[in-house]
Amino acid sequence: MQLNCKNKYQINLVGIGLNLYLCVTKPNNMTTINSNTTITAKSICDSDCIFSAYVVERKGDYVRLQMDGKTFSKKVKKSFDGNEYVLALGSYSMAPAFK
């Protein structure tokens, strides 16, 4: 069997005599946070309420955001599928995730 991907892993189950192949691919629709863009988040309580923040600059894993006339830095996090998000309003149970 041929797998056409860059990241191919082979798992040998010796006791059973079975070879498994796992192909890991990067999705094409991954979201990244870039400077000079506006990122948004919907409220969990009210889907009509949309928060927005302007990304002033990005350096590595941190972004400098501007919201309501205030400028502050936050860490960029990655979800399990590789998409980036920022918890600009803090980390609490119903915090909006800016993407």
Cα-based radius of gyration, to the nearest Å? 20 Å
pLDDT below 50 for ≥5 consecutive residues: which ranges?
none
Query: Roughly how much helix do the residues carry, as a percent range?
Result: under 10%
What letter string, H or E per element, gives the SSE order? EEEEEEE
Query: Could you give a short account of the major beta sheet?
Result: 5 strands, antiparallel
Distinct helical segment count? 0
Backbone shape: globular
Query: What is the first-to-last residue Cα distance?
Result: 39 Å
What's the overall average pLDDT, rounded?
82
Task: Tell me what you see in this structure.
With 99 residues, this protein is mainly β. The chain has a domain at 37-86. The protein contains no helices and 7 strands. The protein has strands spanning 7-13, 18-24, 37-42, 50-59, 62-67, 70-78, 84-86. The protein has a 5-stranded antiparallel β-sheet, with no helix packed on it. Strand 1 (7-13) and strand 2 form a beta hairpin. The mean pLDDT is 82.
Name the features.
two-stranded antiparallel sheet; five-stranded antiparallel beta sheet; mainly beta; 99 residues; 0% helix; globular
